[in-house]
Specification:
By secondary structure, the chain is α/β, with parallel strands linked by helices. The chain contains 13 helices and 16 strands. Bound molecules: adenosine-5'-diphosphate and aspartyl phosphate. Aspartyl phosphate (PHD) binds next to loops. InterPro entries: AceGlu_kinase-like_sf, ACT-like_dom_sf, Asp/Glu/Uridylate_kinase, Asp_kinase, AsparK_Bifunc_asparK/hSer_DH.
Length: 418
């Protein structure tokens, strides 16, 4: 069997869903499980809605109505007004209707997951209905009964044994009779609440299903020809890799290459399942194959940008040397604030750390650090990571930007720049 993943860009409008159907039609003779993300930028819009609701600042109803209108516009283009899908979508949105009528009492991350998950619940309903309308027998699957997580809202940790058991138990029989369409990015807790797996987590969902079902391959259909040596949004003159090793792909995604979610590769590597990254606009193109076979030689360096970084410099209040006791206290505070460190450096009098800026977590961490240390910070920074680099190429890449922190190993150069 095969697992396909269609991201937001591929289902951003009615032509996108028609295109998805054409791609799927080419595989009509295969057993296929299809993972779909929220349409276009819906997750961003739902995040805005969550903020507006929790902080009671913006016009909650206006944001919500725009989200609904966007989906109904797509439905109008694809279905007759009497089609059952209109009811299904209305019923799915009702969950938000009820929630935003009440005062926000619960924890932010919990509310976030209950609201933001609607994007995938709606998109998969629409895709399933359209596939069936076009004669492709498809079943809508509620992923929350199959991908089981703990209750770390916004970053659900997958309970692999329970997930595997439920997927193995039900899905193979379903695939005998029809294609199965399910939501990326979502999970469910043992109390039946919805969790999310971390932004852009639908690739990870595809990998989980593939690993549990021992799929022949996973294909993620993207708006790029495959994996390129750099993000084409920021670099011209990129080259596509025909093949990449799991290890190289893990490194790239770890450093922040947004094309694949970082948790995706490992389960596939463990199960020796290839990951194909292909363009949804040209389904017969070769794309990139990620497997055990990698490249021996990189004609161009791999460049990865991680934006919106904050760099914090921490020193002892009595200006003494930084010791292991200080470091241990600092790391505990980072762990307690759920802040993942991207780069760090110790010098005699300070410890410098660079990480993704996320307002609530950053403010919490800063408050805690300031109780025991002197703290200075700099935000709006970028980490440039260059793998398989040549020294002269680095200079050209940095241009006249100021380097605040630099680390070079044999294969990888990393620079924090302003
Ligand atoms: N090395 C890279 N190769 C290809 N695309 C990249 C790379 N790094 C970042 N990207 C970006 O990843 C985007 C595709 O990933 P993503 O937006 O997550 O797709 P989707 O949400 O449709 O699954 C591209 O539009 C591109 O801008
Ligand atoms: N919709 C979620 C999950 C996801 O993976 O989306 P995409 O496949 O469009 O990156 C997000 O935007 O974070």
């Amino acid at each position: 069997m095969l697992v396909f993943k269609f991201g937001g860009a591929s289902v951003k409008d009615a032509p996108g869903i028609i295109n998805l159907t054409k791609v799927v039609q080419k595989y009509a003779d295969q057993q296929l499980l299809i993972v779909v993300s929220a349409m276009g930028k819906t997750t961003n819009a739902l995040e805005k809605l969550t903020d507006a609701y929790v902080n009671q600042i913006d016009d909650v109803h206006q944001i919500y109505n725009d989200i609904k209108a966007y989906h109904y516009h797509i439905l109008d283009e694809l279905f007759e007004p009497t089609h059952q899908v209109f009811n299904d979508i209305e019923n799915t949105f009702v969950e938000i209707d009820w929630m935003i009528e009440d005062e926000p009492h619960d924890d932010y991350d919990f509310i976030y997951d209950q609201i933001v998950s609607i994007g995938e619940l709606v998109s998969t309903r629409i895709v399933t209905a359209y596939l069936n309308k076009e004669g492709i027998n498809s079943k809508w699957l509620d992923v929350r009964g199959y991908i089981h997580t703990d209750n770390t809202y916004r970053e659900g940790v997958v309970d692999w044994p329970k997930t595997r058991e439920h997927i193995e138990q039900d899905i193979p029989a379903m695939l005998e009779n029809s294609m199965v369409v399910t939501q990326g990015f979502l999970g469910g807790t043992s109390e039946n609440f919805t969790t999310t797996l971390g932004r852009e987590g639908s690739d990870y969902t595809a990998a989980i299903f593939a690993a549990c079902l021992n799929a022949a391959s996973v294909t993620t259909w993207k708006d790029v020809p495959g994996i390129l040596n750099a993000d084409p949004k920021y670099f011209t003159d990129t080259v596509k890799f025909d093949q990449l090793s799991y290890t190289e792909a893990i490194e790239m995604t770890y450093y922040g290459a947004g094309v694949i979610h970082p948790k995706t590769i490992k389960p596939l590597q463990n199960a020796k399942i290839p990951l194909l990254v292909k363009p949804f606009t040209d389904p017969d193109a070769m794309g990139t194959v990620i497997s055990e076979i990698g490249l021996q030689h990189y004609a161009k360096p791999v460049i990865i940008l991680k934006q919106d970084q904050v760099m914090v410099s921490i020193s002892a209040k009595d200006y003494t040397f930084i010791t292991e006791d200080h470091l241990s206290a600092v790391f505990s505070l980072f762990a307690a604030s759920h802040v993942k460190i991207n780069m760090m450096q110790v010098s005699a009098l300070s410890f410098t750390v660079c990480f993704d800026y996320r307002a609530e977590r950053f403010n919490h961490l800063l408050e805690q650090l300031k109780q025991s240390f002197n703290v200075k910070y700099n935000n709006d920074l970028t980490i440039i990571t260059v793998r398989h680099y040549k020294q002269d190429e680095l200079k050209a890449l940095i241009g006249d930007r100021k380097i605040l922190l630099e680390q070079l190993s044999r294969n990888t150069a990393q620079m924090v720049v302003k």
